[in-house]
Amino acid sequence: MSDIRLGVLDLVPIPSGSSAADALRNTIDLARQTERFGYARYWFAEHHLNPGVAGASPAVVLALTASATSTIRIGSGAVQLGHRTALSTVEEFGLIDALHPGRLDLGLGRSGGRPPGQSTSPRPTTIPVVDGRAPNGLRIPPRFSFEHLTGSPRFLLQQQLLRQPDARAQDYGEQVDDILALLRGDYRSADGVDAHAVPGEGAEVEVWVLGSSGGQSAEVAGRNGLRFVANYHVSPATVLEAAEGYRAAFQPSDHLDKPYVAVSADVVVAEDDERARELAAGYGPWVRSIRTAEGAIPFPTPAQARAHPWTEADRALVADRVDTQFVGSAARVADRLEQLQEATGADELIITTITHDHADRVRSYELLAQEWHRR
Questions:
Q1: pLDDT tens sequence across 97-147
Q2: Is 170 exposed, middle or buried, given 0-12, 13-18 or 19+ CB atoms closer than 10 A?
Q3: Is 277 exposed, middle or buried (0-12, 13-18, 19+ CB in 10 A)?
Q4: How far is the C-alpha of 211 from the C-alpha of 240, rounded, in Å?
Q5: DSSP secondary structure string, 113-161?
Q6: Which residue of 34, 165, 170, 180 is surrounded by the most CB atoms within 10 Å?
Q7: pTM: predicted TM-score of the whole model, two decimal places
Q8: Could you tell me if 368 and 351 are in contact, meaning their C-beta atoms sit under 8 angstroms apart?
Q9: What is the pLDDT, as a whole number, of residue 115?
Q10: What is the 3-state secondary structure (H, E, C) of 268-317?
Q11: pLDDT at 1
């Protein structure tokens, strides 16, 4: 499987007992290490108002990481366009590209919930799912709904703080079109007035779209002939429809002549299965904190995770994510990743790993890379 490249997605997690500064130092070290291990790219997610996640601004962390690495591609996974303008996004990445040309991936996310009028019903796929499994055995759990969060005071406050004041809510597809036009240098307003982003115009930036379903994100990526990431680690229930929706919408472009799909996965690898399960113990409580609108907590130690008082409701809340995390020895996890790649037809896999101790996290990426390159 060494022809299927592996990348890294880093949320810049803050372990319990640590600070945001510790998390950032760990991130820079992990980027250096994974570059040495042979990973193809290193991306940063964007999350806000989370006590246990320091990755609030992909562009800022990218600027720090770019100077600490030399060959690995670096990028966003993803910039959330609901929180910023097309111009600010192009200018931020243009600034980084000015000093580190040819290494940047601009991954774009939608944020802000499902667009008005878009169906929440599953989109049909050509791959049958029977008893929660794809034909090759890949776990495809039931769809998870975030409807319970829409009335949460914390969720509403987050929307209020992130929303741009007095701004027209721009359609996501329009924002992506504007970004591409600003990068090309042919942007024109509806009134015919041109604008040029300096820095940004002509930047050597590879544009991606990230999505969790076969909806608007997949359609926008396909229509523009861009690379696409189907987020198994965020929404494992809809990974097949996301990949198929993108391929169905794909039109060749100056960027690509055929579809290109990466698929993300949550992974923890250790020397043996038992040790990996121990290291991954904090994942359930951490996911629960996100899905209750508490905000991602600092990542627990295994002992703290074992002490969590689980209820049946809690277990149901996180079951789809816990059941689809790939945990074990390098051989076991590589087998699961091959299964994911086969079911989705992925051209590339994006790996996100969180453990409490930084050394365990580095070792997980190292063991996986060794096994993957051996195959």
A1: 999 999 999 999 987 554 444 545 556 788 899 999 999 999 999 998 777
A2: middle
A3: middle
A4: 11
A5: SSPTT---SPPP-SS--BTTB-TT--B-PPPP--GGGTT-HHHHHHHHH
A6: 34
A7: 0.94
A8: yes
A9: 44
A10: EECCCHHHHHHHCCCHHHHHHHHHCCCCCCCECCHHHHHCCCCCHHHHHH
A11: 62
Q: Which residue has the tokens 């005071």?
A: 153
Q: Which amino acid is at 172?
A: Y
Question: How many residues are listed for the chain in this entry?
Answer: 375
CA distance linking residue 140 with residue 291, whole number of Å:
19
pLDDT digit string (tens) for 54-76?
999 999 999 999 999 999 999 99
What letters, b where the CB count within 10 A reaches 16 and e where it falls short, cover 284-307?
bbbbbbbebbebbbbbbbbebbee
Residue with tokens 């994942």: 283
Q: Which residue bears the tokens 């097949």?
A: 240
Cβ(55)–Cβ(45) below 8 Å = yes
> Is residue 357 within a helix (H) or strand (E), and if so which, with residue range?
none
Contact 225, 254 (CB under 8 A): yes
- End-to-end, the C-alpha distance of the chain in Å comes to 6
β-bridge pairing 227-231 and 348-352: unpaired
Question: Percentages helix, strand, coil for the chain, rounded to the nearest 5?
Answer: 40, 15, 40
Tokens, residue 346: 């992925």
Q: What is the residue type of 99?
A: L
Residue with token string 């996890």:
333
